[in-house]
Amino acid sequence: MERAAGTGLPPDSRSKLQARFKQIRSLTEALVEPLSDADASVQSMPDASPSKWHLAHTTWFFETFIAREFLPGYQVFDARFAYLFNSYYEAQGQRLARASRGVLTRPTLEVVRAYRAHVDAALLEAIAELPAKAIELVELGCQHEQQHQELLLTDILHLFSLNPLEPCVWQARPREAGHRPEGLDWVAGRAGLARIGDAGAGFGFDCEGPRHDTWLAPHALATRLVTNAEWLDFIEDGGYRNPSLWLSDGWAWIKQGDIQAPLYWRRRGDGWTRQFGLDGASGLDGAAPVAHISYYEAEAYARWAGARLPTEAEWESAAEGFEPWEGNFLDSAGPARPMAARGDGLRQMYGDLWEWTGSAYLPYPGFRPAGGAVGEYNGKFMSGQFVLKGGSCATPRGHVRASYRNFFYPHQRWQFTGLRLAKDL
Amino acid sequence: MERAAGTGLPPDSRSKLQARFKQIRSLTEALVEPLSDADASVQSMPDASPSKWHLAHTTWFFETFIAREFLPGYQVFDARFAYLFNSYYEAQGQRLARASRGVLTRPTLEVVRAYRAHVDAALLEAIAELPAKAIELVELGCQHEQQHQELLLTDILHLFSLNPLEPCVWQARPREAGHRPEGLDWVAGRAGLARIGDAGAGFGFDCEGPRHDTWLAPHALATRLVTNAEWLDFIEDGGYRNPSLWLSDGWAWIKQGDIQAPLYWRRRGDGWTRQFGLDGASGLDGAAPVAHISYYEAEAYARWAGARLPTEAEWESAAEGFEPWEGNFLDSAGPARPMAARGDGLRQMYGDLWEWTGSAYLPYPGFRPAGGAVGEYNGKFMSGQFVLKGGSCATPRGHVRASYRNFFYPHQRWQFTGLRLAKDL
Amino acid sequence: MERAAGTGLPPDSRSKLQARFKQIRSLTEALVEPLSDADASVQSMPDASPSKWHLAHTTWFFETFIAREFLPGYQVFDARFAYLFNSYYEAQGQRLARASRGVLTRPTLEVVRAYRAHVDAALLEAIAELPAKAIELVELGCQHEQQHQELLLTDILHLFSLNPLEPCVWQARPREAGHRPEGLDWVAGRAGLARIGDAGAGFGFDCEGPRHDTWLAPHALATRLVTNAEWLDFIEDGGYRNPSLWLSDGWAWIKQGDIQAPLYWRRRGDGWTRQFGLDGASGLDGAAPVAHISYYEAEAYARWAGARLPTEAEWESAAEGFEPWEGNFLDSAGPARPMAARGDGLRQMYGDLWEWTGSAYLPYPGFRPAGGAVGEYNGKFMSGQFVLKGGSCATPRGHVRASYRNFFYPHQRWQFTGLRLAKDL
Amino acid sequence: MERAAGTGLPPDSRSKLQARFKQIRSLTEALVEPLSDADASVQSMPDASPSKWHLAHTTWFFETFIAREFLPGYQVFDARFAYLFNSYYEAQGQRLARASRGVLTRPTLEVVRAYRAHVDAALLEAIAELPAKAIELVELGCQHEQQHQELLLTDILHLFSLNPLEPCVWQARPREAGHRPEGLDWVAGRAGLARIGDAGAGFGFDCEGPRHDTWLAPHALATRLVTNAEWLDFIEDGGYRNPSLWLSDGWAWIKQGDIQAPLYWRRRGDGWTRQFGLDGASGLDGAAPVAHISYYEAEAYARWAGARLPTEAEWESAAEGFEPWEGNFLDSAGPARPMAARGDGLRQMYGDLWEWTGSAYLPYPGFRPAGGAVGEYNGKFMSGQFVLKGGSCATPRGHVRASYRNFFYPHQRWQFTGLRLAKDL
């Protein structure tokens, strides 16, 4: 679940880029700080990767595409790492099978940290001299690492969720159960011709463009995300037991996995009153937005509520008035968690939770994959997945924008995913 | 793989409907004529159903939604058939698991024919008296049966393809290898605002509407379908061995299934020179359009050819100038097979092969599922599938129209599927 | 599940063999008489084969090992059948995958009957002239066909058991529920040195020998088989819910398959009161022996009863005083079913049900597989299976003897399997 | 893969037992010494357990069956560990699924060491006062821990074998390729009545008894184990490609897993010249016994060699003249590996490698499982497995005896398994 080729050199000066590079690389290491060598090495499911692997793979990216290509005399840290830490770049040769990442108890976390330091030193020194093409790749590598910061958090959360001891990555003020959310209102969206996709002003992945026209039917968006309290109503109304609410594939999925609630909800004698997060187990806050739901669940909820999911274009069009760096994002290592909506009008567009849209992840008109090895992808994942918008509390602040397209399969829910309702007008 | 609720009563008079009902019911039986009881009973894979099941299920539809509801004193043929021959209508109660349809050696083919005769007699007599609501359901049942006629043919073809004896359903003039196709040209499509979806003039399934505006980018469509000869070039150029041509899921699919050619191609010592069809095994006709390919294959071919698949809207917009009942369709029982394109300009839009589009099967703006049990569906299948347009040589003539939306998963290819290239202008 | 190589020519004169050949071949056809083409073609699970396949495979055996080898000028019926109807003789070349036998709707049942007639005619004419080596193979072919007669019955029973219509192969006097069995007594077996295995007087499969000494500890056998009424007590005492009664693999097996009763028992509102058989569905006869149980179930029951299963040697030693052609065996086409024990002392040793022993199916000391292609096997199956003794109501009379070793995996139960208790003294 | 209930109190005085307890507990910790927290936490396959789990589970055994039962005022270290570290004792309540042991990154290795220290302190102090029943359980716990010492080594070897970096647990003098083994001779075994099974003089598991008579046919055993050089001959003669050498299940197993050599052999350009072990990757020593082979492979090799595997009784009878504490066993933490045979006559009976026998793991006549929770098992595993005898280089010295019965499924080969040939006389 990863993207690659970007286009266009950001306007950052080289020293700004250097600072940014340092900041991003440091944050990754801060995220891993509370983890033991074992925590960082175990793979909890094929979809997830060990934290150590994230640490090394992001470093491999900088080493492979920049240090080895552009730094004369660069000394490769360990030639075998190319095999271990390539993710899916076919052009970069053989690689360890994805589901086998958990056998890599060696190299140890310490060695991987040394690997990071080695590559960082080489790059930091070189940034001032790198050609423009390489500078573009540094920016891309930073964006890539930010994506892995979020995956690292969701993967470690998944691992800890399976441990009966309910480990807590970061202490936090306990969440309390029983809050009720604010009322839900609707805001009409723009109808008719709209222009969406990457405008080219800053960094963007290839799949975000080209910018193009699209036609929007009259519609409205809910002012905030659906909450835990509302989801409880859905459950109590038999939402998970009524096949007429579900997509056919979704019904098969809940039957096969005996799905009865969002991924990290916990049942006690008194019902669904607890949830698990990066801050360990705590009460289920009714006012907070419901998180860790699949597309199937989001879609079933929307049908139950007499509504639907927004399309990607509707969402993107509505997001235009908002600043993408404002919202509940990841600023530093800590217990990322979605928060109850506050304020008036359309809110929570950015941050808190990735919002499932009803749009399939497919190429925009005129889409061309970026060239070269780093541009091998994005297009490669364009079947069977749905688009999510807006970023989450685990997304590094500044990483997303209106045109940003995240994508997952409809059954996946270990990411910080939520939903906003939409309706036809 | 089936659709249900229609809207709007067609303008046919009752006597026309009676004639149409008889003609459609007869054609189904004619299709089964060459089959033995065993041929009609075996299920070759979970996606396919036995012919006998198709015969009975289409009859169950008329019995359940019309005879039992609207015919006073109607005598149910066998009460247990409701369990055996319901497909997926949850509202109609329990049903045999889809993958178990092949255990039904009883009722025999003869009993199922008697079941058909019983229901036909009751309905034919009643059509003159039925209320409008029931007449609508008769029309829907006819449309439904036409869909199953095509499935019946593709399912029996699949079964016979697994038999080392290569049984032939219908004798036909042998196909010859070695033809070369006509040249391939491009025709520019309409750009800008377009209106697609069911216009409501005749019968349409719920998912075809509402009619709505959409925006088309400048583009062109290939004048004909891709041919066997061209596909051989793709294979010889290493098309199935080059991961950069494939979607990630598609590459996993060909690796896992060791896919090296379209589903019914056969390799001899001299290469891919044979194919299997309803007329048994014969030479591979280079000028005929390539058939029985998955979306993954279609998409990889298009990338190899420097093109892409058309979107649903592009296809539908281009189809406006054509009569949907003209083309290579199914008129009577016989060895349906796609034919080489003839003539000038855009051709083969209707008939020959279902054309994969690059559009996911998702609801149109404002879509509302039809009400009642027959309208339980269509919407239920809106995840993970792609739209196909235009009908095939196994589609009964008159069944499709521009707004018709067929849909399958990207790995499925036992239907009569092919591809037409498109490109951006 | 099949055996091959025999040793030693039986004393039958050629004319007796001819009569025996005709009788056996006719019985097979009589067994298939009530079946439709579809009944005879469908494969209900990978362990089972279609009746048509049994008809053809037994014929293939005679054609391959005798007609083609020993009959000058023999005309092969259809050269492709070698591929279709070989079971597992690696030395005889490629063959259809076992799990694909159900796709063979062609050749039809009629063609297979013609195949049988063709080979029968050739052999019957030739028996008078065949060399001794070929005569031995005719005897082996007859034994082989008898094995398939039983498999044919158990496979068709399995197929019909999956059909919600509960088809009945042969009408029979209905079985009644509620009988209680006779009391169960114990008979001490011989202790000390015993001699078991094929004595070489008549036909025997290679795995039955060599005859050899073995040492028996003091023990006793139950006078009759365990009954349905007793099994109900086991169920009511929580037998299927108590892990301490089960082998570890057996517990996993019942959990995974949600096993709660013997294979063909049927639950109604009033509990386990019905069973399914070749005579359709009927009442559960408490006095009849419990049938269609796995080794895991037999072993758990024995533990629950404070007893154990007999060893193969104990059983064989006890069987010495009995005539192996007396008992409830298959004499002609009809609803084979196990009957309540009658009389005194040790009974039901032969016929009624195959008795699970606690002995693994492993080679006897000095075992050597028979030579040649027909002798390829028996030894090949010597891992993971348990021995069953005594034949069943579906075994052709005269087919078994004390040294006969049947074998199945511990989870299999679609055969006519039952259990007799044993205990240490 | 674990055994429990023992019978009979060993004659050790309490102080000897105390010393023995300390020595065994220390050895376990020494084995884990070279491992990182991650090495000790990852589960490489469902059959294997993390080292940390072995450390904790053996401790849980002492805590559950002795400390909690017999030590007044004993303070449980962490009540949740009962759920985490129970293996399969149904009577001890719920437990973590076996395949999920690898998610336990917490408790950390350090905490588990503290758990060990806590229980050790409590027990060491108490041994002088414990009642006889508890002393028996301490002895049993020591035996149990020794079993886990061997599993710990084989499990960590398996994990490291999957790591492309080929980690080395213990440095050792490199093994060299190319040696040839000593010649192989035969020694006749005893024939006629023999007495095997636990004689009751020292500790023994329940499944080793009762001691009983058995009858041996004339036979001979090979003087030493089969070697790597001989196995290479088997491979070069097409051993893995000839179905007539294999059990049917074995052939399916090698086809499905593409098995071409023993588990830890490594192919280079020049063929099978390397092997992987606890000392990392090194040359393949032709004179050393071939290790890490399945029963299927051992049996196929024996057939190829015109021989067979010994029965359990033959092996046990032959072992009588040997001291079970002499041989290549585990004495201290280090790179356990099998060594070339030296000397004359029958050798390598004890140590080096567990020897597959041709005997199924089934109860001895008169077998009764030991009572109580610790005696829940052994009998529970008596289906589908084969017996292995003699211990290996990874078995703690003094742990085995002639009557010791190890058992594994025929496809398993991550243990230190080898083979000795036998033949009929």
Please provide a written account of the structure:
The structure is a homotetramer of 425-residue chains. Chain A is of the alpha+beta class and 425 residues long. Chain A has two domains: 11-161, Up-down Bundle (Four Helix Bundle (Hemerythrin (Met), subunit A)); 186-424, paralog of FGE (formylglycine-generating enzyme), CATH 3.90.1580.10. In chain A, 30% of the residues lie in helices and 13% in strands. Chain A has helices at 14-32, 51-70, 81-85, 109-126, 132-161, 228-236, 248-257, 295-304, 312-318; strands spanning 6-7, 186-188, 192-196, 204-205, 212-216, 219-222, 265-268, 271-277, 280-283, 354-360, 386-389, 406-408, 417-418, 422-424. In chain A, the strands form five sheets. Chain A has a four-stranded mixed beta sheet. In chain A, strands 2-6-14 form a three-stranded antiparallel beta sheet, with helices on one face. In chain A, strands 7-8-9 form a three-stranded antiparallel beta sheet, with no helix packed on it. In chain A, a hairpin with a 2-residue loop joins strand 8 (271-277) and strand 9 (280-283). In chain A, helix 1 (14-32) packs parallel to helix 5 (132-161), helix 2 packs parallel to helix 4 (109-126) and helix 2 (51-70) packs antiparallel against helix 5. Chain A is globular. The model of chain A is unreliable at 1-11 (pLDDT under 50).
**Strand neighbour order, sheet with most strands of chain A:** 12-11-10-13
Per the principal axes of the C-alpha atoms, what is the gross shape of chain A?
Answer: globular
Annotated CATH homologous superfamily of the largest domain in chain A: paralog of FGE (formylglycine-generating enzyme)
| Radius of gyration of chain A, whole Å | 21 Å
Q: Strand percentage of chain A, roughly?
A: 5-15%
Taking all residues together, what is the mean pLDDT of chain A?
Answer: 93
The domain tally of chain A reads 2
Instruction: Specify the oligomeric state.
Output: homotetramer
Q: Helix-strand pattern of chain A, N to C?
A: EHHHHHEEEEEHHEEEHHEEEEE
What portion of residues of chain A is helical?
Answer: 25-40%
Q: Main beta sheet of chain A: strand number and arrangement?
A: 4 strands, mixed
